[in-house]
Amino acid sequence: LFFSLILFLGLYAIGELIFSNKQIQLIFLNISELKYQKILIAVNFLMFVLFPVVLFFPYSKILLNFFSIFIFTFGAYKLCLIAKKKLHIKIPKLNLEIIIFFLLILGFFLITFSPVNHADSLDYHMSGALHIFKTGKLPTTLDNFHNLLVGSGEVFYSLGFFFGAEQFGTLVQFSGLLSLVGIIKKFKTKNNIFFILLILSSPVLLFLATTPKPQLF
User: Fold this and answer.
1) pTM of the full predicted structure?
2) Which pLDDT does position 89 carry in this prediction?
3) Which residues contact 34 (CB under 8 A, 6 or more apart)?
4) What is d(CA 122, CA 35) in angstroms, rounded to the nearest whole number?
């Protein structure tokens, strides 16, 4: 779990690096507050590189290991920066809606700490990612029909296995929720907190945000 969180921080740090480009910043500022998109922009940039590597590059396993260490290094560096800084947390003016919002986000975040126990995820999302980690290639055997469904999401999740970071995929899924919050907050309306609560309280998110199924992010 600790390594999963460091990898999660690493994605945030890589997102910060990507957003240092002003042109990319401007694209995302039109739709969201940047801090909510940093993890997902890192995920998508890395997936854009990793999927072709697994499909076509003969030494893909070595490169996957390199990217795992690369993300982890960024995460460890970010953790050191956070440890050195004195955190100044601005507490917003609390009302019932804000309290419910924080409780929902905290609840989803804490659920991601649990071991993966979802049958579908264990059947091919995690097993597919583990196969990619071990071989550097997508599974192609015909003894499991679900091998045909393994794709770029499992390629990205395989990076966590280098450190035994089982919860890495679930944390990436959780970042999809943060992305949605950032997009809704961009709309300067009196009811934007209501729309955020409407989404976060949707029962389907218990399924999407708490399993490493690459659908939400």
Assistant:
1) 0.88
2) 66
3) 19, 25, 28, 182
4) 31
